[in-house]
Amino acid sequence: MDDDIVDIHCDPKNPREIKFEDITTADLLLMDEVLKTPCTRAMNCIEYDMDLFFKKEFLQPTGSFQSRGARHALRLLSDEKKRRGVITASTGNHALAISYQGYELNIPVTVVVPTSTAASKIEKCRSYKAHVIIEGRDIGESRIVALVLARERRLEFINGSDHTHIIAANGTIAFEILKQVPKADAIVVPVGGGGLLAGIAKALKTVSPQTQVIGVELEKCPSFQRAMANESPVYTPPNSSLAEGLLVPKVGYNAFATAAVLLDKLVVVREAWVALAMLRLLLEEECVVEGAGAVGLAAVLSGQLNEFKKKRVVVLLSGSNTDAAAYGRALERGMAVERRLLREDHDVCGAITLFEKLEKLDLNVHQIMSECVWLPSAYKMEMVARSYFLISEDLGSILFPASLTVRLGPHPNLFFSQHWRGIGYSKALRVQLTNMGVAKQRKKGTCQLLSFSALKTQTDEVVKEEKELQDPRTSKIQERNHMETVRDNQKATPKNVQDVGAIEETPKPVHVAMKPKKFLALNRKLTAKKRSK
């Protein structure tokens, strides 16, 4: 980034430490402007072995604590800046808060979001009349775009994690917690850009210095941890995560200067614990919380805060803005971590035995997934006529009787085995028997056809027969022939195809490879002989 493209409120060379007076001023100005969210005791304190409380900031109008900072920062703008409008960069929550508060205060808002931002957050911003620009692979690149636009269009840039007014407003949360949970031993705070941590730490250590401040960030983007090791904010490459709100590659300079000296402990958690925390909050507290908002409970579940056993701990639930699909995947992952979901790999024939065992244990099958074989695009399936299915291939074609439903893909019933490989088709074409009653037999984990006749013809012969079948003048003849074939098959089919005797009486197919013309002639002779009888 060019040296002249900088945020005047966040000077790397001269960072500003937030003062306690800034927070008290914000608390007075926001007294009747934002919601004072509840802080309730956890329903399962016995399991956690803590007197655990949840500060529910996700109940703010825009679904996150960012409403406080957005309201405060917009309120303090001059009339000229309000008229021109503001611009910001965000992964979603700050963009939502600025868009909502700008709509309430009649201030034009432009937000720049990364390409990975959930579509639901983008649509919400637009519903508040904000101009949304989707640019940048992460929040760092989006911030550069926003700074360039701010200079070109003379807009006020508001940094969601490092603006001094934003940090001061975040500190008002600590005042509410101390009133709601007196003598708290620790407050657990999510850490992304550091603005939330800095505001709470400054207010808390001034009013209640004995209360510890615990920061929690993701293992996939430990930007604050690296800043502590380097004694200055440094760039940390972010990776995709369930908690996208914490994927800030570089913490704010003002936030770091304020929080670094006040932080008691910094915890890094893995994604699996975040997913489990989201699941626990839904099942036990009936709270839908996004990954970034659930990292505090994830730290408790991971056992990294065991020194606070039997003590009073407040976990900040910072937001609930999550994509429905991503939230569903996170819950499934949490169930897998807690061993509520188990994976078992079985072949088709072993699945029945597995289901019988699960039934005896009163267990439910959540989902059945089959391994798909992706066939080349040259394969296609089309209906030729009422009595035939045709499968076309580059090198030739196969014409199947109407008694079989042919599918290109996995099917749990049976599939063509060795005798099909003998005539040059190594692809596993899988079929499902219909009402023909063709006998089948299981052998060595596979299902082989014991009675089946098929015609392998040249491509030109198949095309010729296809045209004849589609000719309306021959439709009645084809229908009559089809009905005769069905009656003959019903007479020849055993009453119970599962009967062992019926299987033994059914002749086995010829496994020897034949040339197409001889194979065609043989089947015609067999068909003619059968009709004469």
From TrEMBL:
Biased composition, class Basic and acidic residues, residue ranges: 481-490
Disordered: region residues: 481-511
InterPro entries on file: Ser/Thr_Dehydratase, TrpB-like_PALP, TrpB-like_PALP_sf
GO molecular function, one term: threonine deaminase activity
Superkingdom of the source species: Eukaryota
Catalytic reaction(s) noted: L-serine = D-serine; D-serine = pyruvate + NH4(+); L-serine = pyruvate + NH4(+)
Entry keyword annotation includes Cell inner membrane: no
Function: Catalyzes the synthesis of D-serine from L-serine. D-serine is a key coagonist with glutamate at NMDA receptors. Has dehydratase activity towards both L-serine and D-serine.
UniProt-recorded name of the protein: Serine racemase
Organism of this sequence: Ceratitis capitata
